[in-house]
Amino acid sequence: MIAFLIKRLMHAILVMFVISVLAFAIQDNLGDPVQQMVGQSVPESEREEIRERFGLNDPFLVQYVRFAKNAVQGDFGYSYFYREPALEVIARHLPATLELVFAATLIIVLFSVPIGVYSAIKPRSPISRLFMGISIIGISIPVFLTAIVLIQIFAIGVTVTLFPESTGWGAWLNDFFSTEGNMPSFGRGYDLVNVVGNWDTNLATWNGLQHLVLPAVSLASIMLPLFIRLIRAEMMEVLQSEYVKYARAKGISMRRVYFVHALKNTMLPVITVGGVQIGTMVAYTILTETVFQWPGMGLMFLDAINRADIPLIVTYLMIVGVIFVVTNTIVDLIYGMVNPTVKLTGKPA
Amino acid sequence: MMTLKKTLLASVIGAVVAGTTLLPMTASAETLRIGYSADPETLDLHEQLSGGVLRFSHMAFDPLVRWTKDFEFEPRLATEWEQVDETTMRMTLREGVTFHSGNEFTAKDVVWTIERLKESPDYRAIFEPVSSAEAVDDYTVEIVTAEPYPLLLNLATYIFPMDSEFYSGETDEGSDKAEIVKAGNSFASRNVSGTGPFMVTDRRQGVRVDFERFEDYWDTESEGNVSNIVLTPIAENASRVAALLSGGVDFIDAVPPNDLDRVREADGVNLVEVDGTRIIGFQMNEERVEAFQDARVRQAVDLAINQEGIADRLMRGFANPAGQFSPEGYSGHNPDLTPRYDIERAKELMAEAGYEEGFSVEMIAPNNRYVNDAQIAQAVANMLAQINIDVDLRTMPLAQYWPEYDTRQSDMAMIGWHADTEDTANFFQYLSFCFDEETGAGQYNYGGYCNEEIDALVTEADSETDLEKRNEMLREAEAMLYEDVGYITLHWQNLAYAAAEGVEIEPVVNALDFPYLGDLVINRSDD
């Protein structure tokens, strides 16, 4: 176990090293940060002075070594825009993103397991077919569009006049499909509760939760269909296996067979895929957070790219690399617990 | 099928929401929630010359004088001014003004601020003409220029007196409170004491800035009734519009052209369009393309471009087609110079110059800087194809565009320009003056265009203190550049703001893009 963790630690360091080299190598293509720091009419001589002061004129290797030296001591440089250490900036934005990912994960788990199991047990029922159809479409709609549509329906509101208003049923249908809006469409709201340090939570107040709903739903909309289909496929396979047939033959109640015996084995691959996908979700937050002006790491990263805020970009990429390694490690640990036949000290499969 | 999924989600969320009554979203009547495309990069006015910081300056500070909607000067902290001799202007300052810190505002603060401006990398060049400032007594200040300089009042719109006592001394860490540090953690970038209508109460960079009305604000005649402001930067156009339409904010800037109709027709929201002063156009690189050295070819390029069409169709009327740098209201605006689209004449000129067969050029344009920039460049490329100029267009995001622009390795480049001084000469000095590395003239003259006659005329105008005479000279310079086509003008891009019903933004917004929020009146009907 300890050997496994040490090995993973080495992985993390390697990943950070590789990412930092890559990020530094592309920085020239990200644009000129000085351009973003001065007014357009500022003369070239002033710009040159600033470039010199930030060491932007030094050769790649000199810049990298200087960065690496400081980074080893935990100093990742100053963000040009926030005028603060890059690590602090990220730490401040991290809770917002983690809460969003957490809320989205919760939605995914709450919906994908029952829907997936149901459509595996009753693959031919019209409801199952409906869910499968929707999930195909769900996978193919970009999160950006989902978010805009959600905002239109729930924040701005839509008035449907498709059906004849004069008839009773028409008016009822129009009313039914029209929405009032009123859901908040951006930001985290002004009603946050401080938990500890720079972690303000959306989860403690009604207003905070309201702000969380739309972004979390749009973020979940990418992964939810994937998980429904995954759980369904795995479950159907498990239901064909010998031990399920045996359990049935033994007369154990179907509910127990489905939800205790079959589901447990279904979840094994789901955990593996799920862990990796949660890491991927961090990447998707860039889009979701941009649309909803959610002040998390994704929005921060996109802004940093637009501003060519190189120290922040490099640090963000390294941190995300670490998040991937950490989630993978946790997944492996959980996997080990769920399935004791897997030995963690052995070579990863 | 797509809507089906949304409908399902709708019923799920609807069920959750319907279960409980919504908390009232509206705060007290005088709170203004703003969704701007950007928040101030810093609280230090002199650290960065940017739209965000200047807007902030008008909230927490007051300038000596400010522009009205019609480009007249309105007294603010300076109440009177007179030219004592050719190079000295004496300004009388307003009495009884206090800073947020409680310190009294006097002439020493003005002198201190001007001296600091002359230290600022972003303002140094603009304040170059000012040689010194001196306090005659507590409420009189004399500003001296090295040469006769007609634009001193224009500069005074950038002088937002700072609280010299508050910004003097050392911080606990031992650094000078007055220092200007670019992208650093200086005292002035975090602490504010101005004379303006609003005090900063809280700030999270990139997330929100909170303001509260300054109780001892001097301008008691202002009808402005906004007591609190929450400014949230919302960079994404669609999200900003959605935030307004959903009632999440009361006031937004930069409504994108594609959403103009939608906002105009929405209930409970008002759209205000303002004619802008930023010129959008193209420059031709004469150093790389020999043909562009021929004035006839440059004229042909200008004639082949349909400015009216671009403004009408591509910009949907959200721009005024331009035949010169200066928009209406500017000193050098010459009403005779209008766009002259004439494709036949353009072809003739190409033939005369010996380029009937045309040639190929590379063109670069940004894709997130100006309104519809990439589409405009595409349209221009198509128009040039009509006179056999084959355009290879590359568009790129802002952060990459300017470094690319600075290399001058393309044949045509798009650039927009707003004159910091709100004056005609500024356009020439940056965009069309013969490039000179020493003096910084023609810093954004991409193509090496050079017409010494025009340069001399504009330079002469810039030391002419008889404004009538000066304006005549600048109009002449515009006409000369029009003839010689040193820059291809397309249009002045408009500004669009939108606000919730009852938020009376129309009187406080202006072409400068600095809403005077201290004077904003909110009349919310009680319902």
UniProtKB/TrEMBL annotation, chain A:
The chain crosses the membrane at residues 9-27, 100-118, 130-163, 212-231, 266-287, 310-335. It is found in: Cell membrane. It is a multi-pass membrane protein. GO terms for biological process: transmembrane transport. InterPro entries: BPD_transp_1_N, MetI-like, MetI-like_sf. Keywords: Cell membrane, Membrane, Transmembrane, Transmembrane helix, Transport. This is ABC transporter permease. Residues 94-335 form the ABC transmembrane type-1 domain. The keyword Signal does not apply. GO terms for cellular component: plasma membrane.
